[in-house]
Write a structure and sequence with these properties.
5-stranded antiparallel beta sheet; elongated; about 45% helix
Length: about 210
């Protein structure tokens, strides 16, 4: 039975921001801010940054001018300008907040994905069947969840509180031990020279307490 065609709700366009490749025209827009950041960095010996927003357009590929956020940063004498084009309204997000809180948060999510791929081998999907590759991804995903729990519960307030999965795996998990198996028990002897044994003991105690 045919009826009236459905009218889908009209949604507002998605506001977003994405990186914009730098060029001489863009850098000329923030020449004064780069000079200020360089002067401050030279005086303090620490990185300095300035933010600026302006309307800008390419010479021929863009149909109109768009809002561009610029970060003029100087680190150890080297300038490091970055640019971001966005459709967000200036009233919704000012330049510094948009770059440091909104845009950089997306980069942090990408870092977490990269952390799972090389550190926990989530990129090893070279088997011939889909199920086998899916199982490998499941293992990597479960390992990531477990190491995140170890970092959050067992390694809080230690030097590994913000460490990557790869660092935790190499420092606390991938270590040698002497295993002795008897009728009554399995005895694991850890190396007394292990440099992170205090962190290992603390993580074990915290995880044991959280499991009770």
């Amino acid at each position: 039975m045919r009826g009236e065609p459905r009218r889908l709700p009209v949604r507002p366009p998605l506001s977003r921001g994405q990186a914009l490749a730098r060029n001489a025209r863009l850098e000329a827009e923030i020449a004064a801010e780069l000079a200020e950041a360089a002067e401050e960095s030279h005086a303090t010996g620490r990185p300095a940054r300035r933010f600026k927003e302006f309307m800008w357009s390419t010479l021929d590929s863009w149909s109109r001018r768009r809002r561009v956020i610029a970060k003029a940063e100087c680190t150890q004498g080297d300038s490091n300008p970055r640019f971001l084009v966005t459709s967000l309204n200036p009233k919704a997000a000012e330049a510094k907040y948009l770059y440091e809180t909104v845009y950089c948060a997306r980069g942090e999510m990408e870092n977490r994905i990269k952390e799972c791929q090389p550190d926990l081998f989530a990129d090893r999907t070279s088997t011939h069947t889909l199920r086998a590759n899916q199982l490998r991804l499941w293992f990597a995903s479960m390992a990531y969840v477990l190491i995140c729990a170890l970092r959050r519960i067992g390694l809080a307030h230690t030097q590994f509180a913000a460490a990557t999965c790869g660092t935790i795996r190499l420092a606390l998990l991938k270590i040698g031990a002497l295993v002795r198996v008897s009728v009554r028990r399995i005895h694991v002897a850890m190396a007394s020279a292990h440099p992170w044994q205090d962190e290992f003991r603390l993580a074990h105690a915290k995880l044991a307490g959280a499991a009770r």
